[in-house]
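Appendix B. Chain record.
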Amino acid sequence: MSFKDFITLASEVYGRKLEYHVIPKFILKIGAVFSKRLSELQELLPRYAHDNIFDVSKFKKRFPEFRITTFREGIEQIKAEQETVRQEPNLG
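Structure tokens predicted for this chain:
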């Protein structure tokens, strides 16, 4: 699943189009001079330069009863938790 596919799936779960933007690397480099967060973010960028391929076959073989959460299920759970937090009274 590509990052674009993931955003599309999240949009389906949330029932609205989720916007995203691809920021050019040179903009991040400039911003990193002024922002510690952007500086730290740059350390993570190399991991996104290549596709992440997850092979769960060994895990499934070792733990056949373990049920793996799908992307959709995970996003739905996050959405449900966010809705629960919004409904809780603010005690602060």
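Further analysis of this model is presented in Appendix C.
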